[in-house]
Amino acid sequence: AAQMLEEGVLDVKGSFPTNTSGGSLGVGNSLEATGLQKSLEIVTQLRGYAGKRQVPGAEIGIAQAWRGIPSGSGAVAIFKRGS
Description:
Largest sheet: 2 strands, antiparallel
Low-confidence stretches: none
């Protein structure tokens, strides 16, 4: 992962854009709404509304969230443009 980061693979214009919103800390660490924030970022990207952080040609995105104690629950959502 360190090499990918150094090579820009994870950047917005890289081949595997990651945390385009800045991740949980970049959006204010919304705790219980973290999954919603991630989903919103993906929809924003797929619609082409992300401005300077727009991933060119965004077609698909994946969001995951989990909650530790007391529930230990988690979820994954996959979004695809045009679906």
